[in-house]
Amino acid sequence: MALYGKLKRDTLRYFNMKKLICFDLDNTLVNSDKAHFYSYMDAVEKYGFKRISYWKFLRLMGMPKEQVVREIIGYGKDKKIYDKVNDLQAELVIKNKYGNTTKALFGIKMALRKLSKKYRLAVTSNCSHKTILTLLKNAGIDTKLINIVVGNDDVRLSKPNPAEIRKASKIAHVKADYVIGDSIYDIIAAKRAKVKSIAVLTGHFSRKVLKQKKPDYIIKSVRYLPRLLRKIENES
Ligand SMILES: [Mg+2]
Are the C-beta atoms of residues 23 and 123 closer than 8 Å to each other? Predict the structure, then answer.
């Protein structure tokens, strides 16, 4: 394993390639709970379904979108209606009615600036590609720091499926080294993609719940990621 690690490091150095980090978006880099919530509620109401409470909605954050919409309007309906609600929700987020509710998490911008010097940064999220770009912009995160964006509409299956992570690796021509996320679905996807996983506590999942999925590391926030990576890479 150590030999493999050295080989990979040497190869990356030879081709002057940076290692790849895949970040989840919601509650890992930005807080966009309200933008998602209000747009979902507008979308479900438009199709004649009842709104749910904000607290109930927060429990759904991080799940694949197909599941989120089923949890809101109920299971067992025509597949087309789920797709329609999800499409309208994504459209409403992009239209930016609730844009000013999205904020970058504390210390994230500085951390991304630091990390971008040494790593290539990808955002792999269960939001659509355009939604990711909109939310990053609303949060005031410099999208030039993000080299690769993979949304749920860029792949066939979203997290916990590893497709988003694999796609980012494919675009980067190098296997991702780390996956960072606040939800159990991020950890499961990382494990399936055989990438090191780092859980952050900035979302709605407790340390205890995250720990059950056995991430390689747990840190409070992406703010502490540069420090953790320095430590990991000096050890290896
Ligand atoms: Mg998340």
Answer: yes
Range of the domain at 74: 33-100
Q: Return left, alpha or beta for 21; rule: phi > 0 is left, psi -120 to 50 is alpha, else beta.
A: beta
DSSP 19: E
Give 41 Cα–ligand 1 centroid separation in angstroms. 19
d(CA 83, CA 75): 13
Q: Are 142 and 116 in contact (CB under 8 A)?
A: no
The pLDDT tens digits for 108-144 are: 999 999 999 999 999 999 999 999 999 999 999 999 9
- Residue after which a domain boundary falls, among 100, 122, 149: 100
Query: Which one-letter amino acid corresponds to residue 193?
Result: A
Is the pLDDT at 1 greater than 60, yes or no? no
* Count of the separate structural domains present in the chain: 2
Question: 204 C-alpha vs ligand 1 centroid, how far in Å?
Answer: 9
